[in-house]
Structures are given as C-alpha cells and as structure tokens.
Amino acid sequence: MLVVPEKQIAGLMTPEAAFEAIEAVFASMARRKARNFPVVREAIGHEDALYGFKGGFDGVALVLGLKAGGYWPLNQKHGLINHQSTVFLFDPDTGRVAAAVGGNLLTALRTAAASAVSIKYLAPKGAKVLGMIGAGHQSTFQMRAAANVHRFEKVIGWNPHPEMLSRLADTATELGLPFEAVELDRLGTEADVIISITSSFSALLMDQHVKGPTHIAAMGTDTKGKQELDPALVARARIYTDEIAQSVSIGECQHAIAAGLIAQEAIRELGAVVAGRGPGRDGAEVTLFDGTGVGLQDLAVAAAVVELAKHKGVAQEVEI
Ligand code: NAD
After folding, report:
1. Is residue 187 part of a domain?
2. pLDDT single digits (tens) 65-107
3. Is 7 tagged catalytic?
C-alpha cells in the first residue's frame, strides 16, 4: 500500500484540488452514485477520548475507505494536537488496503472546500462582504477557501473570545483584504456571505441580526448538542446540506427540527444544485448550507492527495 504521511500533505494538497474533489463527490452523492456509511463515534473511557470512523464508497471515482480518529483533549502533554485522524483507502476491486493518508490537515481543507462549494452555488449575486463567526483553527482555512472561490472586497468578523480575532485579521491581510471586527448585528446586516465555524453549544447569530440577501455556511455544528444559529433563522432560510440524515441529527438543523419549526422535507442537498438536479438560490432572501462533514469528503481529498503523491513520485510503498 502507499503511505502519505501527515507532514507531506501541506506540500501536496491545494485548496483548489480540495475544492474540485468535494464538488465532484457532492454531485455523485446527489446522483446516488456515492454513499456514506453509518458513522461510529464512541467515548472510549480512556484519556477522555472520543474515537470513531466515517466511511463510504464513491462508485464514480471508485474510492472506498474510511477516516478513523477523533478527539483526544489531553494531547497537549504529548506535544500533539487534539484532533487526530488517518484515512485508509481500499481497492474496491479486491478489498486490499491501498493507502494510508494523514487526515489532520485534510480535514481542515475538506471542510473549507465544502463551504466554498456552497458559496460558489448559493452566494447572492455581487456579494462583496464576507462575515466570519469563529476564529479557531478552522477559521483561516475557511476564509482562504471562500476568497479562492469568490472575489470579496472586505472581511468582517466576530468571535466569542475577542482575543482570538487577530487570527482573522492576519488571514485577511495575507489575502489582501481589509478586515474589521464588528458586533453580530452589524455582521448580520453587512455581510453578504457568512461562515460560522465555532464549537458553540447555543445560538450566536440570531434571526433579527440577518438582513438578506445573505448566504450562511454553518460549519461548526457537527455533533448532537452543538448550535450556532437561532432556529428561527434556520426556519427562514432556504436550507441545503451535505447529507440530510446528518443535518437533522448532528447538524445545525437538529434544533429547528426539534423545535418543530421545519420538517426534514425542507432540507435540500447541495450536491443536487452542483449536479444541476435542483434549484439554487432562486431569489431566496437567506440561504443556509448546513455543513456537517461526511466521510466521503475525507475519502475524496485523500484519494486526490494519493494521486498527487504518485505524480510527484513521493508516495511511499509499504508491503502489507
Ligand atoms: P478551535 O478549538 O480551534 O476553535 C474554537 C472556536 O469556537 C473559536 O472561535 C472559539 O472562540 C469558539 N468557542 C470555543 N468554545 C466556545 C463556546 N463554548 N461557545 C461559543 N464559541 C466557542 O476549533 P476549530 O478546529 O476551529 O473547530 C471549530 C468547530 O468546527 C468545532 O465545533 C469543530 O468540531 C467543527 N468542525 C466541523 C467540521 C465539519 O465538517 N462541519 C469539520 C471540522 C471541525
């Protein structure tokens, strides 16, 4: 099998390659040519760790595999980041393991690529201002991918911990965009596109904050109980997601569903828009992408990085 270690990913994978891989796999999901398998996520009762795996099969790209890993909150004592993951790919013709790929940087790139795909298809015409809610590790990847797919003129940002906002300012500067820290009511009024990427467990952006036309990529909520948006705002929006089953159970829509404000039938797949099988913004005042993060995204970027590693002659072959 081929091994692409974590330390090689940064030199191989680009936001553009991640975008292409995610756009293609979302379309394959909508055409029912690719499917995710049920997610396993367990507290293992050791080191407070949450461990699990997300897998799937893309019958168009012929990519089969899983991402294994999770969250080890005490990893600092080992000099490691808390999120740890590895992607394993298998030969769909024989079942033999084909590749092991470091999954940490790829997770950030595939998550940012997903919101960028939603911006490409759903941003209001002439969008100029990008609003960022969240200033953690993922936020810089999100901003870079958004700027790659759409020409913004300004970034405004808010974070529950204001001392972290310099991260957004630095990234905007790197992208040649002016940055301003604002309160949430201004962010909701002025931003044409909003990305939320926090680990919040209660609504931050409220319905009354948002004056359309606006596209919101809600990317932080990927677990039961997490929440970034007012359910009334979710209910007002035209809703898209990566996978409906995850949106209603672990995504932002879990709260609007539980409150009886929306039915599952109100949620559309972003892949259907990409595949030309369903309507996009179509004059909606507010569109929402509930990005929950699916296994097929991980497999798509891992398969892309394996191809890049082969092309550059840096993939390591290991007999197993
Ligand atoms: P991080 O720990 O680096 O940053 C956390 C962010 O959330 C910061 O902006 C911080 O100020 C804010 N925050 C922390 N505690 C909070 C609280 N109690 N209430 C409100 N805000 C709080 O995390 P990260 O790596 O940037 O990840 C951000 C979120 O994105 C996490 O919830 C993570 O699980 C999620 N995520 C989603 C996907 C996906 O596919 N949808 C993929 C990766 C990460």
Report:
1. yes
2. 999 999 999 999 999 988 999 999 999 999 999 999 999 999 9
3. no
Q: Which of 41, 187, 197 for mutating ligand 1's site (highest number of atoms within 8 Å of CB)? A: 197
Domain of 99? Answer: 2-107+296-317
pLDDT tens across 250-267, in order? 999 999 999 999 999 999
310 in Cβ contact with 2 (< 8 Å): yes
Residues 96 and 174 in one domain: no
Q: Residue 309 maps to which CATH number? A: 3.30.1780.10
Residues 267 and 270: their CA atoms lie apart, in Å, by 9
Nearest Cα neighbor of 301 from 48, 20, 94 is: 20
pLDDT in tens, 146-175: 999 999 999 999 999 999 999 999 999 999
User: How confident is the model over 49-54, as a mean pLDDT?
Assistant: 95
User: Which helix (H) or strand (E) element contains residue 101?
Assistant: strand 97-102
pLDDT digits (tens, 9 = 90+) for 224-243: 999 999 999 999 999 999 99
Q: Whose CA is nearest to atom 40 of ligand 1?
A: 293
Q: Is 160 in the pocket of ligand 1 (CB under 6 A)?
A: yes
Residue to substitute in 138, 159, 242 for testing ligand 1 pocket (most ligand atoms within 8 angstroms of CB): 138
Q: In CATH, what number is assigned to the domain containing residue 243? A: 3.40.50.720
Pair (307, 279) in one structural domain: no
Global pTM exceeds 0.90: yes
Task: Name 240's Cβ contacts closer than 8 Å, sequence gap at least 6.
Answer: 118, 122, 267, 268, 269, 270, 273, 287, 288, 289, 290
Number of domains in the chain: 2
Residue minimizing CA distance to atom 17 of ligand 1: 200
- Are residue 23 and residue 8 in the same domain, yes or no? yes
Task: Please indicate, yes or no, whether residues 176 and 277 belong to a single structural domain of this protein.
Answer: yes
